[in-house]
Design goal:
This protein is mainly alpha-helical. 71% of the residues lie in helices and 0% in strands. It has helices at residues 10-19, 29-61, 66-89, 104-124, 136-167.
Length: 168
């Protein structure tokens, strides 16, 4: 984010350092653009791969996979938050639209979400040594997807209100 003195703040400085955005490679506009596209594709492959591996681990191993799944979810969450934060700070947020879910990629995302919920059900109904069920993973999955839906709706609503105010 640019400050009043036309300087970047500490968060942007950190993100620029992590992305090495001041490297001479970025001076050529075409190279920079292609690299950004390649980075976006790489990030999506990472996110999709992590989600698929998490779902498969929960389906196959049940409750025993949970400690490993938690470590696999952490970088996924961090990468998603950093990406969303950077885009939002530079006035380029992305809002999921219902039409996105009808595209091939959207259908694929719904299949992955279904696999994840199937894994959450497997873990939920997998008994521990005492024969107890643990609904926390299923509740967490429902809360997570619900929170994602509500957060997306709320951010889109705020952006629509800002657009209306900007037009006035």
């Amino acid at each position: 984010m640019i400050t009043e003195k036309n300087e970047t703040d500490r968060i942007d400085q950190a993100m620029r350092w992590i992305g090495d955005l001041d490297h001479p490679f970025y001076s050529d506009e075409r190279q920079r653009y292609v690299w950004y596209e390649a980075s976006a594709i790489g990030l999506q492959i990472f996110l999709i791969g992590q989600l698929i591996m998490i779902a498969i681990a929960m389906i196959v191993a049940g409750r025993a996979a949970l400690p490993y799944v938690m470590f696999a979810i952490a970088p996924l969450i961090v990468a998603t938050i950093v990406t969303e934060t950077y885009a939002r700070r530079h006035d380029a947020p992305y809002f999921i639209r219902s039409s996105d879910l009808r595209r091939g990629r959207g259908v694929f995302a719904l299949v992955i979400a279904g696999l994840y919920l199937l894994g959450a059900l497997r873990v939920t109904f997998d008994t521990d040594a005492n024969g107890n069920y643990d609904p926390s993973v299923l509740i967490g999955a429902i809360a997570g997807f619900g929170g994602l839906a509500i957060g997306t709706w709320w951010r889109k609503r705020q952006a629509d209100q800002e657009d209306v105010l900007a037009e006035d």
